[in-house]
Amino acid sequence: MIGKWFIRRKIKKNLNGNRNLRLPFKTGILLTNKEFPADKSFLKKLSAVTGIPYENWDVLYLSQSETHPDFVTVLDSHINWRGQLTEPNIRKFLDKTYDLLIDLTTSESLKKQLLISHIRAGFRTGISPAHMEFYDLVIEAKGDHRGFLQELTKYFKALGLLVPASKKD
Length: 169
Description:
With 169 residues, this protein is of the alpha/beta class. The chain contains 5 helices and 6 strands; from the N terminus they run H-E-H-E-E-H-E-H-E-E-H. It has a 6-stranded parallel β-sheet with strand order 3-2-1-4-5-6, with helices on one face. Strand 1, helix 2 (40-50) and strand 2 (57-63) form a beta-alpha-beta unit. The protein is globular and about 40 Å long. The model has no long low-confidence stretch (mean pLDDT 83).
């Protein structure tokens, strides 16, 4: 019970201070899990849609116990009851500032919410409408990569978040 109190307090504090929108998008972080798995091919397609170069994407795989062979894995055990990250390799992702965060995870754990709130990102997109306060845009996608990318493109164009190639740095 006291652990949940610490974590919720940190989430609220983080959400209030980790936003700064910059266009065009140059860096991004993708959160994925086994329910909506991503691979390098999907990441290349995401790069084409967002304009963020493939090499400027960081990927975190969220899991309770299994690790991902290609991406950095964040296990539930990496976050303690006080809401502190116990895995030093993941700290580097929380110290960076990203232009775009895309959360493809579907689980709604308090530890996932804490991790997302820690990540500094100018614009946040998710697929789970359960916690709208975490995102600027929620796209409904049930594990369908192609549909997600089409919807992302449509909404980014409508919101003016895609800068034509001639105007990019």
